[in-house]
Specification:
With 205 residues, the chain is mainly alpha-helical. The radius of gyration is 18 Å and the shape is flat.
Length: 205
């Protein structure tokens, strides 16, 4: 569903991306500012229990993840450094969001749910690592139930509605996200194994 919505979001962000590009602002700058804003907002608002305003601010900065891609397509072929930076900072942004939630859950006396938030963080990083490692070995791994956009939507919606006082929504969202992330890890491992067993053995570094 999110992949179907991406073209519409791209059309909305294109004028802004074009305006920034005209002023000499590179996609890498947008990526970096978006990540710093996400981490700062998550670690400022979430540990204080301000889940709804924190989610609004984080969502604003998360949109930079789409905006930098729009700008990169405007300015020509994406650079290797830009792709590497984007993937690396995605992990930093995710760490900020789920760490902020885990801190608040610990301070509010919900250690089990704090552990679930940390599991979501670790599983999300593992999902991304499996894909990166598989592609580094010459295989594909673009499969899975919960990729990063889905994980962000579930996590942020659950946190935002929890901040508005909707009962049990944060717990339900985190448990759902943990389960979906675990399933995605399994899906990617199986997908890579199917490809790996059909490849003749060769020396690897």
């Amino acid at each position: 569903m999110l992949k179907l919505l991406r073209p519409a979001v791209t059309r909305v962000l294109t004028p802004l991306g074009r305006a920034l590009a005209r002023r000499g602002i590179s996609p890498n700058v947008v990526t970096t500012v978006g990540t710093l804003g996400t981490v700062a907002a998550a670690l400022f608002f979430y540990p204080r229990g301000d889940l709804f305003p924190g989610t609004l601010v984080i969502t604003f900065f998360v949109l930079a993840d789409l905006l930098d891609g729009v700008m990169a397509r405007m300015t020509g072929p994406g650079s290797v450094w830009g792709a590497f930076l984007d993937s690396t900072l995605d992990r930093v942004g995710d760490a900020g969001i789920f760490s902020g939630l885990a801190i608040w859950l610990t301070l509010s006396g919900q250690p089990v749910l704090a552990g679930v938030a940390l599991f979501c963080l670790v599983a999300g990083a593992l999902v991304s690592y499996i894909k990166a490692r598989a592609e580094g070995l010459g295989m594909t791994c673009d499969v899975g139930l919960a990729e990063r956009p889905e994980r962000l939507v579930v996590g942020l919606v659950a946190a935002g509605l929890g901040g508005l006082g909707v009962p049990y929504i944060l717990a339900a969202g985190l448990w759902l996200l943990a389960a979906a992330s675990a399933v995605t890890v399994g899906q990617r491992l199986l997908h890579v194994r199917r490809q790996a067993v059909s490849v003749p053995p060769r020396p690897l570094r």
